[in-house]
Description:
InterPro entries (chain C): HypE, PurM-like_C_dom, PurM-like_C_sf, PurM-like_N, PurM-like_N_sf
Largest sheet of chain A: 5 strands, parallel
CATH architecture of the domain at 77-178 and 265-307 in chain A: 3-Layer(aba) Sandwich
Pfam family, one (chain C): AIRS
Pfam family, one (chain B): HupF_HypC
Family (chain C): Belongs to the HypE family.
Number of strands of chain A: 11
Shape of chain C: globular
Strand content of chain A: 15-25%
Oligomer: heterotrimer
Structural class of chain C: alpha+beta
Order of helices and strands of chain C: HEEEHEHEEEHEHEHEHEHEEE
Helix content of chain A: 40-55%
Order of helices and strands of chain A: HHEHHEHHEHEHEHEHEHHEHEHEEHHH
Radius of gyration of chain A: 21 Å
Mean pLDDT of chain A: 92
Distance between the termini of chain A: 40 Å
Strand order of the largest sheet of chain A: 2-1-7-8-9
Radius of gyration of chain C: 21 Å
CATH class of the domain at 77-178 and 265-307 in chain A: Alpha Beta
Low-confidence stretches of chain A: none
Number of helices of chain A: 17
Mean pLDDT of chain C: 94
Protein name (chain C): Hydrogenase maturation carbamoyl dehydratase HypE
Number of domains of chain C: 2
Number of helices of chain C: 8
Number of strands of chain C: 14
Strand content of chain C: 15-25%
Distance between the termini of chain C: 51 Å
Largest sheet of chain C: 7 strands, mixed
Largest interface: A-B, 60 and 40 residues
CATH architecture of the largest domain in chain C: Alpha-Beta Complex
CATH superfamily of the largest domain in chain C: PurM-like C-terminal domain
Amino acid sequence: MQELMDQYTSSKISRALLDEVIKLAKQFQKKFQRIPAFMEVCGSHTMALARTGVKKALQNHIRLISGPGCPVCVTDQATIDAMISLTDEENRIICTFGDMMRVPGSYGTLMQAKANGNDVRVVYSPNDAVRIAEQNQQKEVIFLGIGFETTIPILAAALKEAEEKQIHNFSIWMSTKLVEPILRHLLNNKEVALDGFLLPGHVSMVMGRKHFEFLAAEYHLPGVISGFEAVELLSSLRRLLMLALEQNALVINDYQSVVAEDGNEHAKYWMNRYFALCDEPWRGIGTIAQSGMDIREEYRHFNAKEKFSVPMRSPRKTKCRCGEVIRGLIDPPECVLFAKACTPLNPIGPCMVSSEGSCAAYYQYMREE
Amino acid sequence: MCVGVPAKVIEINGFSALVDVMGSQMNIGIIFVPEVKIGDYVIVHAGQAMSIIDEEYAKASLEEWRKLVDARTDGSIYEFEN
Amino acid sequence: MDRITLAHGDGGELAHQLIQQVFVSYFHNDAYAKFDSALFHIENGQLAMTTDSFVVKPIFFPGGNIGKLSVAGTVNDLAVSGAIPKMMTCSFIIEEGFPIKDLKQIVHSMAEEAKKANVQIIAGDTKVVERGSADGIYINTTGLGIVPQPLTASIQEGDSVIISGSVGDHGIAVLAARGELGLMTHLESDCATLYPMISAAMKASKNIRIMRDPTRGGLATSLVEICEDFQVTIELEEEAIPLKREVQGACELLGFDPLYLANEGKVVLIVAKEDEQNVLDAIRSFPEGKEAAVIGTVRSTEKGQLLLRTPLGTTRRLYRLSGLLLPRIC
Lengths: 369, 82, 330
């Protein structure tokens, strides 16, 4: 298997696939008199497409639009501000994924809060935060729960451990998002014209291929579930082009080694046990009904929003257009702040912070004068 | 959206496992893949195994790609103007 | 006496004992320790001077410790500037309660590293701060060297870029040693004194344009600085950059980019194409240089950009490290 993995990156295969993709894209252009437009929903795909050079190699052949798949980027400003304000109380330890540390709040970042002496800790896994709670029983440990369907079961695993160990000083401030409702929202509003979707491999690993069949059945668009290596991305783009060429609305699984028809039943069981659907606010979009998950009523003692309150301050307004970027309406350079006032070192919007944010990926990998 | 890494299961201790990614190791949770066995490859996300990799499918993809390379008659490699 | 107390820093009897029993006994520099300054003669010509402070956590890590690092780091800064390292000073800030056994081990490592580069440690200072005011021990070292033949930095189109070995070993080894993110590896830090190797490379070629040791910020940041400082465009070949499997695995798990991880025993050189093989052979004859490789070319003497050619054949631009490396889920 390890040898298999190494060959995955084999440049010979990826160059051959790239040739095929370009050939098919040209056929599409000839047939429909325009360049095909696909949305990669997942932020890790955005980053992988940029890092591996696939996006650049295809820039004249396929319009790849980055979707709303970066958890940090879609989190609305008031939520980010609330999460940062949480750190201000004594006797609290705020634990977070590294992604959140530099996200600009209206009044500073978690990194600045840490520098001010607030106890903010980066963990690799939310279960590490449970262990920190176990070791610091005189303090309240709050985990900042961001993420999509891949990460929601991970948060469930932390609650399971906290429940089993009867840890009462651990809670999660939830702001999780679901892919299906946001895709429906984008498609219903018809803001972007698309020929198909490159579907998120790791969300699919939890939810299953069937979960995305609504794209074909209701919106008559093809979708291909893809892995993250250059060769996997190219293989999936090839399949997607073949479907789009024939206007064949199918959702196919091109990541079968990892993704099953029904996903991971265990992961779905645990996420539904602790969490229930809730309305969620999305950056630049507003609240979408039933588009996220929050802690179930019977586990409210783990719900940081029930346990703690934060001062509500109105978010600072900037010219940041992250909201339009995550909806695929504009490319990052169309924002006046991009690469001028807003850079990875001094980000104004979240899309510039997360390495998988569209702006950061564009800044890092696509700007070459 | 979600970083996921293929890792080989080295040891299993109840609901956790020691996994290896090219020589670097880590303890992860396996509650979502209770059927996992030593020697299996899993996808790891934020400290949990989320899926057992089906090697047959991985091999099949590779085989298909190889055929694609072999089928190329012109043998040319696409060049870019940078 | 097994731990450092505040009295060790007060200049009295205990301080004297510490100096005699620890520093002088390892550094063998009592000849210099009679005045408030070290007095010495040095050859005429151009001198090189550098200073660096070391605050590594943990203090002991696989492949080295803060003492080894503090000498190797300063010696390497001199060596990559084309200097022959000659003299060094060291200054310690120690937290009250620090085990003297550990201090001896650190000072012992410093003496060993200094010997490898034939450098004399001629002056030093110790301050003790209250428990909680520092994290164990901090060391500052200052190095002085002579420069027989300054590097020209006249980088030409077509020059080769060489790295002396795999990137990111120190960054991952120290991260794993910290134990915070649950990462476990058998990897050792590459922490090493590079003067002998660099000296051999300089003997092998008179056309080494410039050298850097890619420490914090990693290979990418060091080369971006060269590109900007000298307005040259360098193109790296992604597949040619040596990378240990463990480093690659750790980077995948935590979402790091190895090009931005710290190295403490690597040198990156820009040399004339015709001297490429001579320099490679010279470097590879040292154990710390056996994985040396040509990783790129100077594409032009304008623009000042660092580019990376991916296995797919496209290039992308690399920038300085922005902010800290943090593990990420997405």
